[in-house]
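Exercise 7. Given the components listed, write out the predicted structure of the assembled complex. Treat all entries as one system.
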Amino acid sequence: MKKAALGLAAALTLALAGGAGAQGYPTKPITMIVPFAAGGPTDIIARMVSENMSKTLGQQIVIENVAGAGGTTGITRALTAAPDGYTIAMGHLGTFSAAPATYPNLKYDPIDGLQAIGLAGGTPILIVARKNLDATDLKGFVAAVKASPDKFNEAHAGVGSVSWTTCTLLKGQLGVPKLNSVAYRGTGPALNDLVSGQIDFMCDQIVSVAEQVKAGTIKAYAIASAERSPALPDVPTTKEAGLPEYQIEAWNGIVAPKGTPKEAVDKLVAALDKALNDENTKKRLMDLGTVIPTAAERTPEGFAALIKRDAEKLSPALKAAPK
Amino acid sequence: MTEMFANLGLGFGIALTLKNIALCFVGCLVGTLVGVLPGVGPVATIAMLLPITFGLDPVGALIMLAGIYYGAQYGGSTTAILVNIPGEATAVVTTLDGHQMAKQGRAGVALGTAAIGSFVAGCFATLIIAALGAPLTRLALLFGPAEYFSLMVMGLCFAVVLARGSILKAFCMIMLGLLLSTVGTDLETGQERMTFGFPPLADGVDFAVLAMGVFGFAEVLRNLENPEARDVVRSKIGRLLPDWNDIKQSTAPVLRGTFIGGILGILPGNGAVLGPFASYTLEKKIAKDPSRFGKGAIEGVAGPESANNAGAQTAFIPLLTLGIPPNAVMALMVGAMTIHGIIPGPQVMTKNPDLFWGMIASMWIGNLMLLVINLPLVGLWVKLLQVPYRLMFPAILIFCSIGIYSVNNQPVDVIFTALFGLFGYLLIKLGFEPAPMLLGFVLGKLMEEKLRQALIISRGSFMTFIERPISAGLLVVAVAILVIALLPSMSKKRDEVFTE
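Answer.
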């Protein structure tokens, strides 16, 4: 009800302002749509970053969770909102780079149909397996999978999820696109069955699996980033472990509807940059295993380029995936 | 054993600080209130309140959030008993006998029994978590997709017993529930099913939308049709608290319910949902006079309510010992822990003993608080029934609508609820029971998911359900339930069980 009242207030203010644009932006609270359930990895990053951005902007950023259809429902709503800088969204690899290949009826164009603000954080992807799987390292695992792909089961959190997207890329690169894949409702249940040994392997974000790897309930073959993660310093990168072409990160970034006034965009970009320089916010993000974006990635141009690059990287594997 | 008491001592030392007691109280109170509001579930509430906990220390924040969770489970039964609206899947069975008791002027007794039963269950569950949390974790890991599917099959057999009228009609409603559960995006392939290309259906039908519609809205329509009958209900208030006879009747159901609910609560993938249904089935089966059920039998409130609360507590076991959330609320707790810099994993118990034992101790304190909050409130809730219905029904509709909107922030959900309300009214007119449909709906999703996972893993071999001992055992029980219900020699008894 509070949100509805807020929305009503926002609409009234907008009507009264008579489209005065972003003069003195921001003059009222900003809605950030998170297209996933509260408490998930994207939601957590959104809440951490927006808390600091609110201080800089002098107006509260209100998180609104609009879940559905792999995050595309929420992003669609954000991108069709009035481009006045008061509706923005936090999406991820899946909603921007993978969605065009995954959802044929997608209602937005992540390359040309939005105003990128900047990258908020990158989350490394790990290849993890049940603890008693024979292969001891990535090379052994790759050889075993290639030799008899029909002996393996891979788990993911549903078509369109980060784990599905990144593992589909892996299977595409290994030349085993038809390897048995088992869908779960969310990473939690999938991880449960990996720990209990019902399934053989999965690809997932470091924040979900790091503690399990440390406890030895599952094992990690490699991290698909350029560098090792301080959270799991013993896990080699895919480059070190012999699969250099498998490089993918589950990043989260902020976008606004296309046509958002430049003043609003500039202020949002500056606020994001300041949040990512804030020691406290940075530490909390890094505790999650998040990689803090470089100065270039925090800009609209840098983020737009990343969306495009990963879309091109993922598209062939996702389109070839059996659906 | 001494170690456990030392640990519990540590836990109570943390939970009994003034600040944590206050946080626990606030959590339980807020939880109770949102639980009473139809449709505003714990998931939406915890999500909304998550940012408020930023300023707290992790233990305090989690104590409060946990309080909201089991407080909401508690409050949900109040709405189920008073106005026949189950806010959560676990409260569906409470409407069966709880609301009937209210109609007979025994609303206070029903609410009191639910509160006391939940308290007893909560105390036992807390002890179970403290003593056996770690070993019981293994149970969660024994249940793979095949076992889980067989458990769901067993659950569906319970649904037949839930029926109050014709067994054929109950069967039809279960099938309808299963069918409704298949609407939406196919989990394995991402293909849309039965959505008619209509985007809001892409994620299927939400439980709250369906339950608020066929129970809440439809109930309002039915009452409006016949306002005089409603007034008769209001005039009788009766005793507020259960008497000695009521307590004697509910003791055994409470203990059985606690056991069943506690075990099912540990299972991954929301096994806790089955707890109240299983408890109700058991009570009805072993009762001397099963025909009392559905007409206000106190066992039908005491057992399921205890099972519900025990399950809500033991659902913390996989989260605290494995770091794996078994359901949506627990996934949210993972988020809360992560925000506070504690990444859940198998080592929480050793790395953060203050958090682990502090939370367990706070659960017991929380249960005591819920009793303290709820028993005095019983009088207030019962008085609510005296509010003239012309004032009551708009309030029910408004709160339902707010609750439904808050789940996904989607206006279309409210419209869907209204449509399901009309549909539910039609069902009432035709003499169909909505409860078996809701059970079919809840189990359908899990059942399909687990069936397909099991078959993909077994490369399409159905033998997997029989080859795995636990799965086979569960199927045998399922068959046994059906055989007992359908054997011709038992037909006389069956008539007693299934017809009013």
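Discussion: Chain A has two domains: 2-10+27-122+250-320, 125-241. Chain A has twelve helices and ten strands.
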